[in-house]
Specification:
45% of the residues lie in helices and 11% in strands. The N and C termini lie far apart (40 Å). The protein has one domain: Rossmann fold (3-Layer(aba) Sandwich), CATH 3.40.50.1110. It has eleven helices and seven strands. By secondary structure, it is α/β, with parallel strands linked by helices.
Length: 294
């Protein structure tokens, strides 16, 4: 459904596999009294496309952490929404996520955040419809008024969108090349700028920040030769002292025995299990480090 700040959000559902909780998220009931809060910012990977909510890595991470933290309780808040890119994850954290007072923030990063057209076209007012939402209704201020009421302004915005589409390469596979186009370099700059804003917002409240990089299925066939996107993110993370979990090596280790993807980028229930296990130790270290400072 439309959202004035985020363009869209989850449609409230009371029952069934797409049920949302009191926070409007596809997650178990929110435990406001938990001793430790972990906020996951993500997209359809964290949301759990193709799997039950109980099989998503945020839910499994919560189970694993509660076993290790007992008698303390851990709440992992899964704010993943299909289609979200880093600009929406940043906005969610700024407007709603920080109010939940997380002890740790995890950004689940999907490689299509770089090439997702909403990442590149958000500045031009989105598109008429996406996931069933007329995103023009979600644009606020004078720009939104002009976009909805001025045919000339709408035509100009469409021209900007079409020009951007024509100049940009949106296929994730192209990011694995050694030589990137100017457009993809620009898209990377936009993404890392937004990640850095999330990092700074978390740092303002002395909240640890963890970057988790979700791989694509095609990378498993040549994990060393097709990992340029991961290497670029890891280099950025090291330069900014951001702990980083690269899931690609773990997925390669398990891929011979398990089917880890339901499609090109969405994890199967086994993929979610691998992701949850890979996160446990980094999460424990960061929480321990924060509690030591406190």
């Amino acid at each position: 459904m439309p959202d004035p700040d985020l363009l869209w959000r989850l449609n409230p559902e009371n029952t069934g596999p797409l049920a949302t909780n009191e926070l409007g998220l596809r997650d178990s009931a929110y435990n406001a009294d938990a001793d430790i809060n972990i906020l996951v910012l993500g997209d359809s990977v964290a949301w759990g496309d193709g799997v039950l909510m109980e099989h998503t890595f945020p839910f499994l991470l919560q189970q694993n952490c509660n076993k290790l933290a007992a008698p303390k309780t851990v709440e992992v808040i899964n704010s993943g929404v299909p289609g979200y890119s880093t600009f929406q994850q940043l906005k969610y954290f700024e407007l709603r996520g920080r109010a939940l007072k997380p002890d740790l923030v995890i950004l689940q990063f999907c490689l299509n955040d770089v090439v997702e057209r909403y990442q590149r076209l958000a500045r031009y007012g989105g598109d008429n419809r996406f996931l069933g939402i007329d995103t023009r209704q979600s644009i606020s201020g004078i720009r939104g008024f002009l976009f909805r009421n001025s045919k000339a302004y709408e035509r100009f915005s469409r021209y900007l969108q079409n020009t951007s589409r024509a100049r940009s390469e949106y296929e994730v596979r192209k990011m694995a090349r050694n030589q990137l186009s100017e457009e993809l370099d620009e898209a990377w700059d936009l993404v890392t700028e937004e990640i850095d804003k999330i990092r700074r917002l978390a740092a303002d409240r002395d909240t640890p920040f963890l970057l988790m990089i979700a791989p694509y299925r095609f990378q498993l066939s040549n994990s060393k030769g097709l990992r340029q996107p991961q290497d670029r993110l890891i280099q950025y993370a090291k330069a900014h002292f951001i702990p980083c979990v690269d899931l690609l090596p773990d997925f390669v280790d398990y891929s011979s025995n398990y089917v880890l993807f339901n499609d090109e980028n969405h994890f199967s229930l086994y993929g979610h299990q691998v992701a949850a296990r890979a996160l446990v130790q980094p999460v424990q270290r960061l929480l321990k480090s924060r509690h030591a400072r406190d």
